[in-house]
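Technical annex, item 7. During the second reporting period the consortium partners agreed on a shared format for inverse folding records so that results from different sites could be compared directly. Each record opens with the tokenized structure and is followed by the designed sequence. A conforming record, contributed by the partner at site C, is shown below for reference.
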């Protein structure tokens, strides 16, 4: 049935741009039941101009030309950064300054803007599918013509969920979590009977709330003609809206209250609270033939008795009382702020949205996932279907909606990929910047995919050897002699004389009896640790160790004991508790994200005291630290006390791969037992030759280490002078902390656009409060390029340091660097 609906929808819908184009009697036909869609309610919103909405109203006819349905639509700019509860106002302002359109979309909604309820109203239930298909077709056409981003259909009750899915999913809509609606069916004869139905504790609270005037002198008045109060109502409403955390959508204004008093004079009222003659709070309520809705609230938080008088509770109880007095059968309390509504006995009804992007199925699903993951619900929900009550926990309801969004079956192993949407969210928000393409070697600057010169301060080529003529020549000559690959594992046919020579040179370089090569640095840690450890082993780990170290240990099945970053007192307590157990202490020597340096001297003292072994990953220290570049082991004078040294070739040694150096028996064990080594093809000859030449240059050109650390310190000092949180630990890694993941990603993309490439650092690599940049430097960085980078840091400083950019700040204004330009000339 549904598949044919979209084939017979031509010329069945009349769309109005304004209710002025439609006669009131034409819109408010007999048989329509949604009072929120009545002419007077919609006219109030339209004439007030709130949120600069673009309105559309549709009357839907059947084949005989009889009107069978009506629907309300509007286009609104929606800022979805409100879905990120962790984002502070300052961070949001900064991100919006960098990218004004970030997560702000033109959304074409079928809904009621200031009320809850279905925005599709039909005479007969059996016409719902046809009318809904008409509405969906209109929404798609509108978005294509007006270039709106998303379609959103709001507030679908559980009883209609399956019907909406049946019609909308084939059209590309995804169901999404909606805010739950709080309502109270008025089953009692009168207000006093309602109060008596409550438990004694809750009844006492509500009765006490009715004594506001008696106890505190706060006068209460119900007002139908409140137009003269419109300015005060706007003022008090804005105070509440400014503090809204869950949801802030409609922006009510003075005109809204004026128009409401005009169009809804018989269907609305204000419960006003005055103190010493001054309006201090109000509840704005509207009502139809059967329902009474508590719609909006305003209060002066500076009211002297605010902390003593529960005005919201009082307004809520008085609203229920008014609903009884007016003979209504249902009391509606709306969305969010569920705890006080639960006290009143409200039923929390789950509602569903349906969303679709104009032309991207990926973004349709992404927005559906975003809403579902970030909307808060009460713990218990109740729904009606065919007259039967159904209850859900919030967890069950959320999972039910998530499963409706899945493109995979529950048992499909790809479901984990289907549910991942964070990368798509970044693309949708236009701050995705990963996998940039470069068209040159990594040097002081690089060429991006547009052929532009970009300063590179996000690299691990610390010594700048990957463009060294000698390294390139050695690689080319070896490739010409040995070919482009080894086509086999080292154990069988993949070992060249070059491999054996490099292993001996590395072993001698770190003063160990033996060494073994692996094809990547990650694989090196995976292979060695998974072979050396087993389920009987305890592995002691710094919480900031590199992911490859964690993964290698996990693969072994060993127990992992974490200690706080660089907290060796914590580490010793763990060692003391595990005396006598086989234990391997695994650590980075320089931690890759922070640039902090492990205290290997104290670690060696502790490992010898408690009888464990020490595995040190020198990846970010090799060639950089120590008098001759042997790493932190040399810097701390513990080369002979470290049991196992691991290093990579992709940092200072300008190539690819890694090595383990240790005693001969340990190396032989790894060579014959480590699957990651045995079952991987050997490093190509060109790679090995490049590493050998780089290793020679580490000894031959010690000035590179001096230049590298001098430039790293220069940058750290300049960044600190500007106010950035940029810690220098005497390594080429200088972290710049912003404290928010989204800000870090937005800044990363903006820096790239400004001609500077940095590495963003976000969870899980670091905790969210340490999100920011990982800047890193090279010996061959040109001073002019470093100053170019600092100029961009200074230009963007108001958005990243203060996080409160001044109004009128021009992000494109040229800012000079305020550092001593002569400070580096001695080394230039």
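Designed sequence (site C submission):
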């Amino acid at each position: 049935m549904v598949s044919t609906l979209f084939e017979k929808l031509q010329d069945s819908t009349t769309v109005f741009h304004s209710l002025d184009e439609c006669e009131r009697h034409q819109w408010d036909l007999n048989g329509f039941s949604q009072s929120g869609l009545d002419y007077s309610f919609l006219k109030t919103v339209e004439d007030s101009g709130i949120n600069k909405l673009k309105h559309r109203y549709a009357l839907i006819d059947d084949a005989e030309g009889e009107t069978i349905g009506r629907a309300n639509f509007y286009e609104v700019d929606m800022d979805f950064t409100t879905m990120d509860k962790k984002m502070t106002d300052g961070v949001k302002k900064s991100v919006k300054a960098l990218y004004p359109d970030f997560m702000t979309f033109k959304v074409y909604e079928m809904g009621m803007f200031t009320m809850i309820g279905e925005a599709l109203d039909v005479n007969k239930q059996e016409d719902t599918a046809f009318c809904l298909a008409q509405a969906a077709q209109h929404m798609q056409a509108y978005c294509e013509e007006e270039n709106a981003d998303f379609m959103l259909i709001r507030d679908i009750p559980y009883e209609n969920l399956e019907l909406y899915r049946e019609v909308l999913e084939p059209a590309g809509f995804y169901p999404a979590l909606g805010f739950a609606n709080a309502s109270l069916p008025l089953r009692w004869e009168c207000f006093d009977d309602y109060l008596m139905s409550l438990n004694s504790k809750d009844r006492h609270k509500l009765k006490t709330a009715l004594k506001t005037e008696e106890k505190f002198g706060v006068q209460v008045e119900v007002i139908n003609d409140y137009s003269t109060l419109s300015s005060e109502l706007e003022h008090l409403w804005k105070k509440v809206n400014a503090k809204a955390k869950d949801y802030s959508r409609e922006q009510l204004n003075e005109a809204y209250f004026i128009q409401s008093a005009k169009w809804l004079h018989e269907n609305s009222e204000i419960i006003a609270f005055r103190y010493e003659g001054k309006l201090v709070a109000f509840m704005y309520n509207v009502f139809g033939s059967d329902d009474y809705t508590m719609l909006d609230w305003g209060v002066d938080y500076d009211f002297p008795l605010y902390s003593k008088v529960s005005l919201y509770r009082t307004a809520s109880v008085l609203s229920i009382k008014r609903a009884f007095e007016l003979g209504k059968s249902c009391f509606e309390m709306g969305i969010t702020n569920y705890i006080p509504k639960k006290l009143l006995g409200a039923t929390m009804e789950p509602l569903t949205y349906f969303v679709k992007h104009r032309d991207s199925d990926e973004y349709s699903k992404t927005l559906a996932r975003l809403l579902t993951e970030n909307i808060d619900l009460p713990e218990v929900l109740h729904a009606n279907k065919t007259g039967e009550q159904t209850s859900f926990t919030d967890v069950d309801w959320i999972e039910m909606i998530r499963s409706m969004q899945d493109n995979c079956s529950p048992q499909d192993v790809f479901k984990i990929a289907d549910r991942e949407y964070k990368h798509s969210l970044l693309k949708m928000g236009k701050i995705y910047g990963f996998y940039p393409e470069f068209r040159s070697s990594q040097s002081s600057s690089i060429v991006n995919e547009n052929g532009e010169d970009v300063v590179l301060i996000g690299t691990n080529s610390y010594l700048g050897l990957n463009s060294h003529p000698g390294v390139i020549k050695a690689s080319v000559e070896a490739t010409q002699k040995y070919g482009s690959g080894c086509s086999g594992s080292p154990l069988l046919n993949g070992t060249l004389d070059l491999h054996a020579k490099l292993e001996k040179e590395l072993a001698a370089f770190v003063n160990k009896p033996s060494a073994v090569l692996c094809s990547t640095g990650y694989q090196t840690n995976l292979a060695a640790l998974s072979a050396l450890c087993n389920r009987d082993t305890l592995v002691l780990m710094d919480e900031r160790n590199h992911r490859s170290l964690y993964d290698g240990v996990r693969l072994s099945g060993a127990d992992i004991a974490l200690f706080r970053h660089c907290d060796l007192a914590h580490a010793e307590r763990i060692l003391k508790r595990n005396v006598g157990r086989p234990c391997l202490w695994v650590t980075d020597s320089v931690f890759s994200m922070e640039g902090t340096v492990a205290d290997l001297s104290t670690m060696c003292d502790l490992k010898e005291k408690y009888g464990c072994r020490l595995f040190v990953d020198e990846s970010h220290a090799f060639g950089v630290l120590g008098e001759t570049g042997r790493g932190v082991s040399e810097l701390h004078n513990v080369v002979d006390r470290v049991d196992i040294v691991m290093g990579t070739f992709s940092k200072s040694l300008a190539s690819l791969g890694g090595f383990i150096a240790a005693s001969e028996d340990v190396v032989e064990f790894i060579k014959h037992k480590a699957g990651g080594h045995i079952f991987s093809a050997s490093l190509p000859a060109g790679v090995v030759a490049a590493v050998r030449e780089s290793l020679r240059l580490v000894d031959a050109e010690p000035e590179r280490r001096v230049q590298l650390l001098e430039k790293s310190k220069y940058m750290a000092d300049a960044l600190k002078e500007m106010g950035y949180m940029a810690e220098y630990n005497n390594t080429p890694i200088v972290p710049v902390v912003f404290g928010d993941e989204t800000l870090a990603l937005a800044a990363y993309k903006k820096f790239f656009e400004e001609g500077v490439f940095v590495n963003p650092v976000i969870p899980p690599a670091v905790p969210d409060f340490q999100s920011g940049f990982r800047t890193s430097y090279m010996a061959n960085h040109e001073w002019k390029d470093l100053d170019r980078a600092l100029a961009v840091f200074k230009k963007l400083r108001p958005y990243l340091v203060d996080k409160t950019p001044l109004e009128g700040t021009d992000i494109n204004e040229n800012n000079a660097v305020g550092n001593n330009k002569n400070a580096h000339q001695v080394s230039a």
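The radius of gyration is 34 Å. The first helix runs from residue 2 to 5. All partners now use this format for quarterly exchanges.
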